[in-house]
Amino acid sequence: xxxxxxxxxxxxxxxxxxxxxxxxxxxxxxxxxxxxxxxxxxxxxxxxxxxxxxxxxxxxxxxxxxxxxxxxxxxxxxxxxxxxxxxxxxxxxxxxxxxxxxxxxxxxxxxxxxxxxxxxxxxxxxxxxxxxxxxxxxxxxxxxxxxxxxxxxxxxxxxxxxxxxxxxxxxxxxxxxxxxxxxxxxxxxx
Length: 190
Description:
Layout: H1 10-36, H2 39-56, H3 66-87, H4 111-127, H5 132-143, H6 148-155, H7 159-180, H8 185-189
């Protein structure tokens, strides 16, 4: 833990944190973006994540696990922001709820790209219906790029539990998509 020892120069720890930021910022952004589906919110989560890393780096006992530790901080920060935004409601002067209307920025996108974007949005919507334990495992594995072992350590569960949760998450997701019949999985996969 030499670089963060109190007697070390502040410049050394700043350099180390810059290296951490440069190394993991893209992965943190991907995790945040897949949870929040909003570029600005994802950028905010990147910033908040590295502020937390800076504040808590001295608590990390095993620096070999720093990548998974940062990913968990990012995931938790993004989930917290998602839950907070979910509770926010826009109300007009007459105390009526104002529906959120998104600008139609997809007008000039080719049909194939638009369909892919719609499917990704639909897929994320279906992921959000999964139980928290399945959703977290799925996100850490596919979007965070963590191994089974890293997820096991991060979530404090056994390796078998991680594999089981990932399998069940995929099965539940497949079942939801097939039951909904909005998309044909054979067309999407090919």
